[in-house]
C-alpha cells in the first residue's frame, strides 16, 4: 500500500538546525583582517623593543634597562616568593663520593661521582663504572650494563 499524500505541501518549509556561535560570527573577512593587522603591529613593536634593548646593552647603561619595572623574584625557605635577595654564584664544591672518599672519576653510565675504592672497570670496554652499573658475567668478571649480553 502506498503512503498517503501530505495535505500541507504548500505550507511545508524544510527545517534544519543552525547554530551560529560567537566564533562563527567573528570569523568574517573584515574581522580577520583587523586581527591580522593588529598581530603584525604587535610583532613589529616587539622587534623594535628588542633592538633598542640590544643597543642599550652595548652602550653599557644598565639603568635604562629597568624601564619595564620588572624585578627578579626569589624563593624563600618556606616556598613563598620574595622581592629581595641576592643571586648565588654557581660555585661547584669539592665533590665527594658516597663513601666520603675524594673524587677520582665518574661512572661512565650514570655519571655518579666515584672514588678510587668505589670504581669498577669493565673487562670488555675498559670504562669505569659504579657498583650499581656493573654486573657479574658467567666467568665472574665485572661487565657493565652496556656490554652485558
Structural description of this entry:
Strand 7 and strand 8 form a beta hairpin. It is built from two helices and eight strands, in the order ααββββββββ. The model is unreliable at 56-65 (pLDDT under 50). The strands form four sheets. A two-stranded antiparallel ribbon has the order 1-2. A two-stranded antiparallel sheet has the order 3-4. The protein has a two-stranded antiparallel ribbon with strand order 5-6. The protein is 24% helix and 12% strand. It has helices at residues 22-26, 29-59; strands at 74-75, 81-82, 105-106, 113-114, 120-121, 128-129, 134-136, 142-144. By secondary structure, it is of the alpha+beta class. The longest helix is centred in the first third of the chain and has 31 residues, at 29-59. The radius of gyration is 36 Å and the shape is elongated.
Helix/strand/pairing category: alpha+beta
* Count of alpha/pi helices: 2
Radius of gyration: 36 Å
The end-to-end span amounts to 80 Å
Low-confidence stretches: 56-65
Average pLDDT over all residues: 76
Strand ordering within the main sheet: 1-2
The major pleated sheet works out as: 2 strands, antiparallel
State which percent range the strand residues make up.
5-15%
Helix residue percentage: 10-25%
Shape: elongated
Spell the H/E element sequence. HHEEEEEEEE
Per DSSP E runs of 2 or more residues, the count of β-strands stands at 8
Keywords:
alpha+beta, elongated, 149 residues, two-stranded antiparallel sheet, single chain, two-stranded antiparallel ribbon, 8 strands
